[in-house]
Amino acid sequence: MSTAVIEIVLPSDRRELGELSLLNGDGACLAGPFVAYGKADNARAAKNGNRDRDPLIQWGDTPDGTYDVPEIVRTGENTVYVQRSYGPDAMLPIEPVDGPALQAKMNGRTGLYIHSGDLADSGGLRPTYGCVRLSDDDMRSLLEALRLWFCADDFCSIPTHGLRVLIRPPKEVEDA
After folding, report:
1. Nearest CA among 155, 24, 25, 10 for reference residue 90
2. Residue 25: is its pLDDT beyond 90?
3. Which helix (H) or strand (E) holds 149?
4. What is the longest distance spanned by two Cα atoms in the chain?
5. Residues 109, 104, 22, 162: is their CA dihedral positive or negative?
6. Among residues 55, 83, 126, 153, which one has the fewest Cβ atoms lying within 10 Å of its Cβ?
7. Cα(35)–Cα(64) distance, rounded to whole angstroms?
């Protein structure tokens, strides 16, 4: 069985951009790195009682940790996941299994995804409600790399049982 890891390196200051790479089971890069953004929307977080965007509670920044991908969900036209918010192709729901992500889940945190969507007026990636956002082009490239790696016919037939997501800080922060 083929395995793969989506490694997402996000700075502790989630206002800064991070990187997402698709790695094979041996750690070799299959795709990326792509620019990734794991910051929650300030106004939505504050409106829902998480003014500091604490990743361990709902409406916070994306929590570090290990996740499984239970499925790949089509987005965009003819779906409930509108293109502006989730992108035109598909998204990856991520289910916490370890680390701060699991603690966040135990605190009631739900609805975490890797997805794309329209850019901000400035041309950069927009904040989410606690997910990881890529550009539409980078999301499509990630999905295509997954499709090829797992020998799937299309994005939504990718067998996700061999896919893990690791969200972590940069190495120099880990080593400090």
Report:
1. 155
2. no
3. helix 136-149
4. 47
5. negative
6. 153
7. 17
pLDDT higher than 90, residue 107: yes
Neighbours of 87 (CB within 10 A): 25
Q: What φ, ψ does residue 162 adopt, rounded to 5°?
A: -105, 25
Prior bond to 55 cis, omega within 30?
A: no
pTM for the model stands at 0.92
- Helix ranges (DSSP H) in 8-135: 42-47, 83-86, 99-106
Q: What is the pLDDT of residue 1?
A: 52
Which tokens hold the place of 71?
Answer: 């499925």
Region class of 117: left (phi > 0), else alpha (psi between -120 and 50), else beta: left
**pLDDT at residue 109 tops 60:** yes
- In one-letter notation, the amino acid at residue 156 is C
Contact predicate 72/22, CB 8 Å: no
- In three-state secondary structure terms, 50 is coil
Q: How many helices (H) and strands (E) does the chain have?
A: 5, 10
Give whole-number Cα distances, 95 to 37, 42, 67, in Å.
18, 23, 5
Question: Strands, E, within 47-140: which ranges?
Answer: 65-68, 73-74, 90-93, 95-98, 113-115, 132-133
Q: How far apart are CA 175 and CA 31, in angstroms?
A: 25
Q: What is the CA radius of gyration of the chain?
A: 15
